[in-house]
């Protein structure tokens, strides 16, 4: 039986447990690369696989969690990527011998991908593609993309898998206790994104014990079951505790199984174990869940438009879907000029304003003559992904520009647009299928745009049929009836309303570009608002509009101006003569009073908003009036503290914090040479690194950046730093504070070793520790301070130097 067929059966599959835990039990002194053991010690790995199969596992995972090319590069094994993964797959298949399915384990790269980080999506995609090609060559039954904290990285792994093979793909994310990934994605947003991009199974692993994951899923299970794909979960054996310098997971096999039983009762199709679990946990789990009948819908649905942070369920959204129109350079000279200059102040400001004004989604168009539009679209998507939380509509008829956006965008956008023209259809269709996007289907073919509703309806229906024939679900399609300017085509408005009404009655969503209706007329907002209300009465679903001025309340009585607009749109005011005459005599001129803002307030706002383009100019302007210390303390640091407060409250996430920190750093770099002339300008000296054996340095880098931005002299030793090198650095640099980071339970004890050596040598420094597995209790046990995250680490460091 193939794995895909087994997924359709109404009983859960049991996944195996931890691989790393078992390896370190078998080889306690091993210091090498774990994936290399598939070749150098296949007997050890084979014995672990066999123990899990004997315990009742239906699925065993290959020993390749760190087997992507980027991770193997850290161990100088990148050239052997395919070889190692193929060997791991063949080894697991040989042990399984048909008694269990083999899942190719694909873990994260340990890098931050654009738009959040600096690593190019193509680099990450290629690293995953090489690994997955090796796993497939070795004969795995499915791919298990697991322990992902960034939906963008998970997307890229999924894209690589789908490009390499047609075997099923499991996508599993890791969530915090607040129900979100560390990069800000909630459960429904992340898993809907991956499901609609082609994952065959979605779920969560690691994170916490089964009790914690049960709590997270209880509030979302109804929505997740509506995705129409099997769900997976493999939890840790509780949370780690440090005993005799080693991480110990204390949840017993019996308790683990009893807690995990609820996953089966909720309808999960794959249930297993992660960190700290062993064959005994899996044996008890199999006994508890294998007989449970699960009831889940198995027809995949496509109903979510997503960003990294938010989702819109198009099947349940109430009222008009408002799509902000103001990120289009066609009628906005400032935006066009900035795109040519490669700056993004307008983009940041207008996107935030539209979100604040109530837009559910933002249309982005970067079509300016003379620029590399594909490159500019990538940059614009990066900026928007780190500025606003709402989803995007990618507005381009150029497939290369659209493709550039889709690689960068960490979610499921709307593509605007595709037409029934052969060239347009053939160019855009592969992108829709590959990236799972929604699409605006224009009532347009080689015959052009027609005024008559009947012709537009026929073209629209033809395009819908074509899309469905190629596997694009009806729920992903918005029909654009194509609004013609009423001032140029009298009666066009009424024909457009007929098209909207026809498709609405068929249960098909429609979307319009509202502003076209009022082209060439004064006080266009009245025409726009009246037509919008008429369209809503006919069943309009979405509109690209100016969210700051629209009024879509169809119950509100028309004003005098709107009644004039209604007469024009319904054909009673030919050539809009009465409408134009009215505004020709009474049109009011709006006077804009120049706002006066203290330059320090301006700098504060630029940092909070992450506006890196304008910070340098503002800081230089401030230097004419204020000292570097005043600018630093009252504007730059104050703003970063505000960002830290927003981050702590869950109102800002990692991307916003990074954007603000980068902005602050650019301003700080102007002040730094001036401030270094005064010794008291530096708060203190800090040595920071990731401990020996740990190559994960994303968190450490963020902490280092935040500390430097708050006025500390930071000496970054890097990652995987030997204990003796840390001590040497302390002796040489004589820092006030040492910051140590660890993501792995296996490397965390190095913190204790360093702490003991600092104490033994009576070195005059204080120690702050942090990282994913580090707890306050552990910090207390080694006489260190605890920094939960970058914000807290800064606060702790400031408190230390204040007391010194």
3D structure, described in words:
With 804 residues, the chain is of the alpha/beta class. The protein folds into 4 domains: 3-289, TIM Barrel (Alpha-Beta Barrel), CATH 3.20.20; 315-408; 597-681, Methionine synthase domain (Methyltransferase, Methionine Synthase (B12-binding Domains), Chain A, domain 1), CATH 1.10.1240.10; 683-804, Cobalamin-binding domain (Rossmann fold). 46% of the residues lie in helices and 15% in strands. The protein has 32 helices and 25 strands. The strands form 5 sheets. Strands 1-10-7-6-5-4-3-2 form an 8-stranded parallel beta sheet. A hairpin with a 2-residue loop joins strand 8 (240-243) and strand 9 (246-249). Helix 24 packs parallel to helix 26 (628-648), helix 24 packs across helix 27 and helix 25 (615-622) runs parallel beside helix 27. The radius of gyration is 29 Å and the shape is globular. The chain starts with a helix and ends with a helix.
């Amino acid at each position: 039986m193939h794995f895909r067929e087994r997924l359709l059966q109404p009983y859960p599959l049991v996944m195996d447990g931890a691989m790393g835990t078992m390896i370190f039990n078998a080889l306690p002194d091993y210091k090498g690369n774990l994936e290399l053991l598939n070749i150098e010690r296949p007997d050890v790995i084979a014995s672990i696989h066999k123990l899990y199969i004997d315990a009742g596992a239906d699925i065993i995972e290959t020993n390749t969690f760190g087997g992507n090319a980027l991770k193997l590069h850290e161990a100088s094994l990148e050239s052997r990527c395919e070889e190692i993964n193929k060997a791991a797959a063949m080894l697991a298949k040989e042990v399984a011998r048909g008694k269990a399915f083999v899942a190719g384990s694909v873990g994260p790269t340990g890098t931050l991908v654009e738009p959040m980080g600096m690593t190019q999506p193509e680099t990450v995609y290629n690293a995953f593609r090489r690994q997955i090609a090796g796993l497939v060559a070795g004969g795995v039954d499915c791919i298990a993309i697991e322990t992902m904290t960034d939906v963008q990285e998970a997307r890229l792994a999924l894209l690589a898998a789908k490009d390499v093979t047609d075997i099923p793909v499991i996508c599993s994310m890791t969530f915090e206790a607040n129900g979100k990934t560390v990069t800000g994605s909630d459960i429904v947003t992340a898993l809907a994104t991956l499901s609609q991009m082609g994952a065959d199974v979605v779920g969560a692993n690691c994170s916490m014990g089964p009790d914690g994951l049960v709590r997270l899923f209880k509030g979302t299970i109804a929505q997740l079951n509506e995705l129409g794909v099997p769900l997976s979960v493999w939890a840790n054996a509780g949370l780690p505790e440090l005993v005799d310098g080693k991480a110990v997971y204390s949840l017993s096999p019996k308790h683990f199984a009893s807690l995990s039983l609820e996953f089966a009762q909720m309808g999960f199709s794959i249930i297993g174990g992660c960190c700290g679990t062993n064959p005994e946990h899996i044996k008890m789990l199999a006994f508890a869940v294998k007989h449970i009948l699960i009831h889940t819908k198995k027809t995949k649905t496509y109903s979510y438009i997503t960003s990294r942070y938010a989702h819109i369920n198009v099947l349940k959204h109430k009222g008009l879907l408002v799509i902000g129109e103001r990120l289009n350079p066609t009628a906005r000279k400032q935006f066009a000029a900035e795109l040519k200059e490669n700056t993004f102040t307008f983009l940041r400001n207008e996107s935030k304003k539209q979100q604040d004004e109530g837009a559910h989604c933002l249309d982005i168009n970067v079509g300016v003559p003379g620029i590399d539009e594909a490159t500019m679209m990538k940059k614009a998507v990066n900026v928007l992904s780190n500025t606003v939380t709402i989803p995007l509509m990618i507005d381009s008829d150029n497939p290369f520009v659209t493709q550039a956006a889709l690689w960068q965008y960490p979610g499921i956008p709307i593509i605007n647009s595709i037409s029934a023209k052969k060239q347009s259809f053939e160019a855009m269709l592969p992108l829709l299928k590959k990236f799972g996007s929604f699409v605006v289907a224009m009532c347009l073919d080689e015959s052009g745009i027609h005024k008559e509703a009947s012709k537009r309806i026929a073209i629209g229906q033809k395009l819908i049929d074509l899309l469905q024939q190629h596997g694009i679900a009806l729920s992903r399609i918005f029909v654009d009836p194509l609004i013609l300017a009423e001032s140029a085509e009298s009666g066009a408005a009424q024909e457009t309303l007929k098209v909207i009404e026809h498709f609405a009655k068929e249960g098909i969503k429609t979307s319009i570009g509202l502003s076209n209706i009022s082209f060439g007329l004064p006080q266009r907002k009245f025409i726009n608002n009246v037509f919008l209300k008429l369209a809503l009465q006919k069943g309009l679903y979405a509109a690209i509009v100016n969210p700051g001025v629209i009024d879509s309340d169809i119950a509100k009585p028309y004003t005098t101006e709107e009644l004039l607009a209604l007469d024009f749109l319904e054909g009673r005011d030919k050539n809009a003569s009465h409408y134009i005459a009215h505004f020709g005599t009474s049109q009011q001129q709006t006077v804009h009073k120049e706002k006066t803002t203290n330059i320090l307030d301006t700098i504060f706002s630029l940092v909070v908003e992450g506006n890196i383009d304008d910070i340098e100019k503002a800081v230089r302007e401030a230097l004419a009036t204020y000292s570097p210390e005043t600018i630093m303390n009252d504007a730059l640091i104050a703003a970063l503290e505000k960002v830290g407060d927003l981050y702590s409250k869950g109102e800002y996430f990692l991307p916003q914090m990074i954007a603000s920190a980068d902005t602050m750093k650019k301003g700080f770099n102007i002040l730094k040479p001036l401030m270094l002339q005064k010794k008291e300008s530096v708060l203190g000296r800090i040595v920071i690194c990731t401990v020996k054996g740990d190559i994960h340095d994303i968190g450490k880098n963020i902490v280092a950046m935040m500390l430097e931005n708050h006025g500390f002299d930071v000496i970054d030793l890097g990652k995987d730093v030997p204990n003796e090198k840390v001590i040497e650095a302390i002796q040489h640099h004589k820092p006030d504070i040492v910051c140590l980071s660890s993501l792995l339970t296996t490397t965390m004890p190095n913190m204790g070793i360093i702490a003991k050596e600092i104490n033994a040598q009576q070195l005059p420094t204080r120690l702050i520790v942090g990282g994913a597995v580090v707890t306050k209790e552990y910090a207390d046990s080694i006489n260190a301070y605890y920094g939960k995250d970058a914000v807290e680490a800064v606060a702790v460091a400031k408190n230390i130097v204040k007391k010194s």
